[in-house]
Amino acid sequence: MARKMNRTDAPRHSLHPLARRKERRDAGWDGNADGSRGVGRSGGRVGGCLRVGGAAARAYVTEAGEAGLLPSRRSTGDQLVCAAVTWAGVRHRRMAASRKAPRVRIGSRGPSHLDGFRGCVREYLGIISRKIPPVTCPGFSLDSGRANYQDFQLKNLRIIEPNEATHSGDPGVETDSRMAPKVTSELLRQLRQAMRNLEYVTEPIQAYIIPSGDAHQSEYIAPCDCRRAFVSGFDGSAGTAIVTEEHAAMWTDGRYFLQAAKQMDSNWTLMKMGLKDTPTQEDWLVSVLPEGSRVGVDPLIIPTDYWKKMAKVLRSAGHHLIPVKENLVDKIWTDRPERPCKPLITLGLDYTGISWKDKVVDLRLKMAERNVVWFVVTALDEIAWLFNLRGSDVEHNPVFFSYAIIGLETIMLFIDGDRTDAPSVKEHLLLDLGLEAEYRIQVLPYKSILSELKTLCASLSPREKVWVSDKASYAVSEAIPKDHRCCMPYTPICIAKAVKNSAESEGMRRAHIKDAVALCELFNWLEKEVPKGGVTEISAADKAEEFRRQQADFVDLSFPTISSTGPNGAIIHYAPVPETNRTLSLDEVYLIDSGAQYKDGTTDVTRTMHFGTPTAYEKECFTCVLKGHIAVSAAVFPTGTKGHLLDSFARSALWDSGLDYLHGTGHGVGSFLNVHEGPCGISYKTFSDEPLEAGMIVTDEPGYYEDGAFGIRIENVVLVVPVKTKYNFSNRGSLTFDPLTLVPIQTKMIDVDSLTDKECDWLNNYHLTCRDVIGKELQKQGRQEALEWLIRETQPISKQH
Asked: Which portions of the chain have biased composition (kind: Basic residues) (predicted)?
């Protein structure tokens, strides 16, 4: 995901970043032959894919008429030799293949160092938008599907159609034909036809917005709600697609720049959020739409706050935001999966610490403080937390499709199927008991939420209010008359859920101890097996899950395991599939970001390691990340501090070296709930996050990502706890973090002499805690080899004074 800011196109080098930038410019990676800047799909180069000797290269054609090849920065088979060629041989650019391949120049003096080159084109050369006439350069020809130079040949070249070509959004970003983008031309044609179909819209619309979420604005969604991925091919957890009559654009954040570029075809323009030259969605619409346009969106899956902002900008420019009740993607998605309806899990007080009835009492007290008579709950994790129930309707997220409306004397739960008929659920919700009315739960059909809400609001007195989050869908919000609507960014359930009680905190500690045992087993296994060869990203991820499944109360993973080696590590939310699966080696950095759902807690941990000898540059980058991690974890800050004020702590050491990462530093973590939860977090974005409080649980995960080379991230889950300080200004108190994750950080990757004495002490103390706490559990479970590994990996470090 995240990549080094302002260096997105740089080829891999071991040079210092500033030197790499100059080398990249000198080698011709910055800009097209005509002097224009390559900007991916929206202009500049467009391209296809060429595979040579097992490695990938991208063919391109510029608007100025230049044709050529951009090599990947990795050779996985025979050595890759690739060069840019122009139509008339006007300009010959020197290109370098991977660090293991010889350098080649196509020009009047011909190539050099061709000994040992045995590669041939194994698949195809794709050229988008046009066919190339014969091209000649001194000593090199491309004609009739055959390229010759002395004793080496590139054979079997064929021109393919634009929609077949594998495409990369940016020059210099490696394209791998094994991760081919989805062909979307026909889908977009059908969608644009639906935008004009009067069976679905009252008048034709000129643009259609496709957000990531579902009707509950969830970050992680069920397959039936993956509309944006279906239309575009991009399946990251964050992004918004907008389709007009002539354009298709995708906005996503820094976590997904590389992934989106790989997964989308040439029909799409990638909009990189957070970069200064990227327009907002509303500004882009204003710039491309004809006067008086109508922009449509499904009101059930668009958040209210998004609607208000978009509608205001469009209205000021003479356009209109229109609710389209028939989801247009659903109309063209002929094999759309059904919405899941799986059994529910009940949780007792040992896990929750408080009964659902007591939670309702607390909620009603908050409602009374605001003079609110009804509260509408739409977020799935809030409903699960409120009723002490869990589900599995969304993979890796223990939630279930439902809505709830809580009144001062009424409780309504909107849920499909016969799930509440299960004896354990009936007993848990006290459905068969003659409870007093204020605790009696009315179970209603899931899809009846809007009609029931409108009926309820019709009987309100003029001064009665209904509480709803402004992140609820526009359809839900509009079902409440404006005069009765009371909106807020975060609900009282959201805030109460974030502050863990003692039972939840202790459960999270137990979960992380079990998780650490599993990871010690994994890393011990990897250290033995990787040198033998044959361990892949997928087999390592499978082994991690195998060890976790051996632990008590394991339920599921908390997200798809990010198991990435070498260049795949630079894709922050990379998930290995057979087409991209790389073998772990002694020569590359390995990053694994993984977690689990246990009945007593949710885990999320990232470790970066090397099974051979890391380079000095890799150690330098790792050490900068470690410094940032320690700076956050050891921070002491006043009560009431918001998370964004701590974000720079994690980046300071990276900034000192001219490095950075394009994602937040930390997110909230649920208790046997979603691995990402609000309202707390640590991020450079100054959104209206709630202040950090004792009992909140967040992650501490700075990183650094070198495109085409490696990724580094160190992540612990930490608990916010009170701390005593020498003084107590204004009697406000202070807070710090207590690590729940207890997994060794590989010292081989550290430039120890770059650490301060305090940083060395922090790491040694952390490793001592890992050895004491996890060591006892490994002994208890009889895992002797993993214990020996733990002892080796937690030996104290010291600087060479």
From this structure: 13-23
